[in-house]
Structures are given as C-alpha cells and as structure tokens.
Design brief:
CATH topology: Rossmann fold
Number of domains: 1
Number of strands: 13
Largest sheet: 9 strands, mixed
CATH architecture: 3-Layer(aba) Sandwich
Structural class: alpha/beta
Helix content: 25-40%
Bound molecules: uracil
Strand content: 25-35%
Mean pLDDT: 96
Length: 208
C-alpha cells in the first residue's frame, strides 16, 4: 500500500507538541506549517530531474532542474490552508488549486462546493493537503475532481491518518501515495481520529 509514515525525529517531536491540548493557536499553526514542509520534502524526493547548462562563475557548467510543469498544491478548505505556506516555502512556484468539500447532511456524501483548479493538470503533479485523513470522504472527492480534470499524478499530504481513510483511498485509487506524520489508531463514533489532534480546522483558525 503506497502509504509513507515519515518517522523523522523533527516530525515526531513537532507532532508530539501538536497533540498537546494546551498548545496555543499560534504554536499549533506554526507546527502545522513546519510538518507540512517536512512532508513536502519527503513527498518530492523522487521527482524527475533534467540536465541543463548554466553560466557559472568559472564558465559553463552542467546543472539539474526539476523536469516538467510546475506542481499544483491542492488545499482542501478550510483546514488545508493551514499547511499551504509550509508547502509553498519549499515549492514557491507551485500553482494553487483550492477545493472546498462539504458533507451533504441528507446523503452524508462529500460534495464539492468550490473547484478552482489550475490549468494543464494533465502535465502536473498534484499535492493534496489536508491535516486529517479520517474517513477519506473529502480526500476521495478531491481526487475524483482532479482525475476528472485530467490529472494523472496525485499525492496526498496529511498530518495524521486513520487506517480507515488510508484503506478508502487505496481501494479506489491504489496509485495515490499518502505521506503522513502518523498513522493513528482508529476513528471514534463522531469520526474523530484517536488520538489525533482534535478538530484541526478549529485549532488552526482559533474557532474552538
Ligand atoms: N477532522 C478533524 O479535524 N479531526 C479529526 O480527528 C477528523 C476529521
């Protein structure tokens, strides 16, 4: 299963702080962006490169650059915004495709309400960002949207993932790799990840 639980000491340390119920909104926000940067580093480590020639201080020399079109980062509103700067710190030229998904209270299905995708998705790698992969409903709706728009290469970056969400993504999209700081135990009866982080959106926006 293409799930990557990144167990770097910096990630484990920062995630431990984020799990503290007494962490301030400011610090929670900062940690979310920092962990997002570290996940980005891992999720991009196999990007294809191409050679090119540059003028260096002592003449012409061979260098390398990332091949192909720029990446698109896809924050799932609202909580995904809390990871955006962390990704853009490492990939400042990335285009941003904002996606909003709401739950239809009658059907309980995830329904898109905002779809601001960038162009030429067939030539881009999409990095979806959402702090919590719980049931996987929003993630699947976002991948559906991207694939329908022609995107062929999708990766998901989440701070914490539940086994149920990972399995749901893998069942429909076995080609989508998931990068996470932690695979947690389970979902509770309200759909929260245990031990998780609580409501990540509320903690990021200070609305709790
Ligand atoms: N969304 C959250 O913010 N937290 C969870 O635990 C699950 C979904």
């Amino acid at each position: 299963m293409p799930v990557h639980e990144i167990s770097h000491p910096l990630i484990r340390h920062k995630l431990g702080l984020m799990r503290r119920a007494d962490l301030s909104t400011k610090n929670f926000r900062e940690m979310a962006q920092e962990v997002a940067s570290l996940l980005t580093y891992e999720a991009t480590k196999d990007l294809p490169m191409e050679p090119y020639t540059i003028q260096g201080w002592c003449g012409e020399l061979a260098a390398e650059k990332i091949a192909g079109k720029k990446i698109t980062v896809v924050p799932i509103l609202r909580a995904g915004i809390g990871m955006l700067d962390g990704v853009l710190n490492l990939i400042p030229g990335a285009r941003v495709s904002a996606v909003g998904i709401a739950r239809n209270e009658k059907t309980l299905q995830a329904q898109p309400y905002l779809e601001k995708l960038v162009g030429q998705l067939d030539q881009r790698l999409a990095l979806i960002i959402d702090p919590m992969l719980a049931t996987g409903g929003s993630m699947l709706a976002t991948i559906d949207m991207l694939k329908k728009a022609g995107c062929r290469s999708v990766r998901a970056l989440v701070l914490v993932a539940a086994p149920q969400g990972i399995e749901a993504v893998f069942a429909r999209y076995p080609d989508v790799h998931i990068y996470t700081a932690s695979i947690d135990s389970h979902l509770n009866e309200n759909g929260y990840i245990i031990p998780g982080l609580g409501d990540a959106g509320d903690r990021l926006f200070g609305t709790r």
